[in-house]
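Weekly sync notes, structure subgroup
Attendees: PM, AL, DS (notes)

Item 1: joint prediction request from the bench team. They want all two components modeled as one assembly rather than separately. Inputs as received:
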Amino acid sequence: MKALLLVLAACTSVVDQGGPWEPADQITGELLADLGPAPPALAVPSTLRVATWNVHFGDDVADLAANLQASPILATADVILVQEIEAYPEEDGPRARRLAEALGMTWFYAPARVEHDGTHGIAVLSRWPLESPMIRRLPYIEQPLRARERNAQSVELVVGDARIQIINIHLDLRIGVVDRIRQLSPAVVNVDGPALFGGDFNSNPYVWVEAAIPLAGTEAVVGADQATILDDYFAQQDFTGAVPTSMATMRLPVLDIRIDNLYARDYEITASGVDRIDGSDHWAVWFDVAL
Amino acid sequence: MRLGILAVFATTIAHAEPAVTKRALVEAPSNTVYVELLGKAGPYGLGYERRITERLWLGVAASYANVRGQQIATAAPYVHVRLLGDRNSLFTELGAGFVQTRIPSPVPEWDGMSDSGGGGFASLGWQRSWTHLIVRAHGSVMVGEGGATPWLGAAIGYTR
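Output from the run, pasted for the record:
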């Protein structure tokens, strides 16, 4: 009871507006980014396959790679946006690097925070060279339980003569949609022109009272799913989403919720779906865009 | 699924024994006002009930809340039926729920959204009564445009 009262008395607030986009090579210290070398040259395709997958810490890199290679859809992905991947000094390199190498891709790992003696963050894996890697610290939302530092990463994919901007993001879990858009907006507003955007938006259906109590009863009546609201936000920025809110992306026994997605601006989406891949508590979202 | 829940609920009411004693009927309050935490009106509710028959009350609970910038107005008319007991009693409620929510934009590049919806609920709960005071706890199933979900609530009220 005392713990409940403490939770209810605690205050959720935005205490830090985050930072600007910073070139990855200018970030030093514990949150040092890791970038791979340019991959072997490929023939320029007519479509590009992009996927996003929260790998739930990715501690078994070999299993992740095996699951990706076993998927007819994901084994042929040109780019994979990864969330919840970590790096520890006692391991043989950052997990993003090891996963990329197992898949024959290059990588850009962007740590968001220190986790134990390592780091926790997001990554872009690519069969195409990556240029202009940037990282943006997102607004920090203080919460009674498990507040986290979050970030976004931006990179230009070099496909022949084309430069394709891709942004990867991972947002907080137990926040309402107003705070979610506050946290998301800095990664979207300064992106001009054609772009691909994806990640784990954690767009659960609920209004959260102080990041502790989901108003499930209210959501059951009104059905104002955060994923629907995020789709509206992206539509107003001229982005088109990959999959509808009815397509679940999380492996839950009862709830069908779409918390991951991909969005494209000024690229035609020619195919899309959710791949129910093993190896994580999330499934992967993918789309093909015409080049 | 929703019809099934309502059918079970209706059957429960129809077959409930008239277990309220004669003494309790005489003393049963005509009017109740209460405050509810969670429950049928969202994050909280202010409610009023009026006794209609020996075992049945009509009520309404409502709330307005601004939860981290999201504005939520809720109204829930319902029937309250005492199934068993007197000072310690088992009750059930069946009602409708209406929610209007408005999400003002926190950023300049988005217009914000508003939405409204309707649904229903069925509850089963326990009530403890004193002379002018009641305390309740109940579990519910809420159904509507967002599907069906279990839900909890607790209330304290004044009766007369």
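Discussion: DSSP finds six helices and 18 strands in chain A.
Action: AL to compare against the crosslinking data before next sync.
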